[in-house]
Amino acid sequence: MKKLSENIWLVDPPNRNFPHSTCIFIKDEINCLIDSATSQEDFEYLKEQNISVLLGSHGHVDHALRNSEYPEAQLLLNEKDHGYVASRDSFLQMLGSDLFGSENFNNMKIDRMGYRFRPADGTHRDGQKFVFGKTEVEVMHLPGHTPGHSGFVFPREGFIFTGDIDLEPFGPWYGNVKSSVDEFLESLERLRQLGPDFVITGHAPEPFTSGIARLLDEYRDVIFRREKEIVRLLHAGKRTIMEIVAEQPVFQGHPKRIFVFEYMMVWHHLERLMRLGKVEQDGDCFYLVEGVRPSNLNLG
Ligand SMILES: [Zn+2]
Known about the structure:
alpha+beta; Metallo-beta-lactamase, Chain A; Arc Repressor Mutant, subunit A; 6-stranded mixed β-sheet; 5-stranded mixed β-sheet; globular; binds zinc ion
């Protein structure tokens, strides 16, 4: 753990892989943990710290991993993400089991990890302030990755914890049924407006302490690159979503590619392109609206 201030600790994950992520421990008059996917070693320490509030950035397992291991703490999560943590069935539904069948998710690692679902005790909302003693935290709803995804602003210390808006080179992830490209773009703009001194994310190895506006822009541009690639594929005659997904415009051969997530992310781009009036759907097939070409695409 790294001390960030008198009362705030950054809890590093044991590695950068699923199912762990960076968490924040507030040791003050009231003790609070933001996200719970710590190492076993850090858990051994934290479980003795009388944590009474668990704040969740969102409902994914690699942030909610140990929620069930703090039974005395109140778990607060934006209500749009409650389905992820309520039960196995609702979790699979949030992932997309109604569309793809739950068998597509049956090999999820959660079974091997012994993850236990633990429903939220309550909700946090955009703009809500928590005072834990000297430490104040304000919730910032930053949807897109998931519908309830939220960041936590520490106004006194000048930073924000942004969960899975992780600013990693892979780029934004919006592969669940209720993820949204438009919401993700709006959330990035909100962060830009906030102008924090530094940013801690769920998966980047270190806090980002400079050039944050530029990093946010580069991260946003990954979304536009993917969208442009989908338009290029449509222009080249790929018509069905399966034909487009086969070309991997999102994951581009990345080793972490999972078919259903690529599919959902392509689908969310097509939804957006249709809303922008650049693509039309006819049955299973998608077409560029007349006059739209990769070369004259204006996505911003
Ligand atoms: Zn996530």
